[in-house]
Specification:
The protein is mainly α and about 150 residues long. About 40% of the residues lie in helices and about 5% in strands. The longest helix has 18 residues, at about 70-90. About 10% of the residues are buried.
Length: about 150
């Protein structure tokens, strides 16, 4: 069950035109080309990347939220891969740091909600482009109303 109460209105149908305090949700279309670079080579003494870190980083490369990244966020994501590798290699004190950084970059569901990003599926994105929602005139909304005499 998704939630209680009516579904939220489309922003075009709002009567209160003041923007919400945290801003509107941003719809992210599917990613066409990865923004994050491949994992860099590690130094000789450090050994290769673990399979867990490679799998996680490849997931980040496919995540639509990365299309909003600038140079600073890309660098932070690569640095986060190094922290994740330390966590995988047994430094469990890094767990909260890794989680917080992933949330800050929007790489977790909680991070996406906090940043107000919404991932749109391909079919939904095509529908939104093809068929914009039409607003009914005020008279049509009130046409069904009748006068009640007591």
């Amino acid at each position: 069950m998704a939630g209680r109460g009516p579904a939220p209105k489309d922003p075009a149908e709002r009567r209160n035109r003041t923007p919400p305090s945290r801003g509107e949700w941003v719809d992210l279309p599917p990613l066409t080309k990865p923004v994050l670079p491949p994992l860099p080579k590690r130094a000789k003494g450090e050994g290769p990347w673990s399979a867990r870190t490679r799998r996680l980083y490849n997931g980040w490369r496919k995540d639509p939220v990365t299309q909003t990244y600038g140079e600073a966020e890309i660098s932070a994501a690569v640095e986060l891969a190094y922290l994740q590798e330390e966590l995988v290699r047994g430094k469990v004190t890094m767990a909260s740091e890794v989680r917080q950084r992933m949330d800050g970059l929007g790489l977790t569901p909680k991070g996406k909600r906090d940043l107000r990003f919404r991932v749109v599926e391909e079919t939904q994105a095509e529908e939104q482009v093809r068929r914009p929602r039409a607003r009914s005139p005020r008279s049509d909304r009130r046409a069904r109303l009748t006068l009640v005499k007591s």
